[in-house]
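Hello forum,

I keep getting stuck at the same step: I have a sequence, I want structure tokens, and every attempt I make locally crashes halfway through. Rather than fight my setup again tonight, could one of you with a working pipeline run this one for me? It's a single chain of 102 residues.
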Amino acid sequence: MGVRLGKTADKSVIVVEGRFDFQQHEAFRACLDEALERGGGLGLEVDLSWVDYLESSALGMLLVMRDRAKALGIDSIALLGCRGFVRQILVVASFDKFFTLR
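Reply #2:
Ran it on my machine without issues. Output:
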């Protein structure tokens, strides 16, 4: 359970497992910092496939990530594995307007 960073040649993938809440803030920020250090030309994705709970602080973390990524020229961020409760929260919060939901 927790947050980890996966990398491929053309993108960074932040994988979140379990509860995505304020307890994950530091780990998420560390992964995001590392992903953004790789450069603005690479893609960025967040894999939420294994998230079973999502709270408002997680939404805030995603918005901060979007702002920081945009400042580096990353315009497209995909949220992967959005299903059930997680997808419902993201759609109700209009995150489908800010991110690609898959």
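The mean pLDDT is 93. If your local run keeps crashing, start a new thread with the error log.
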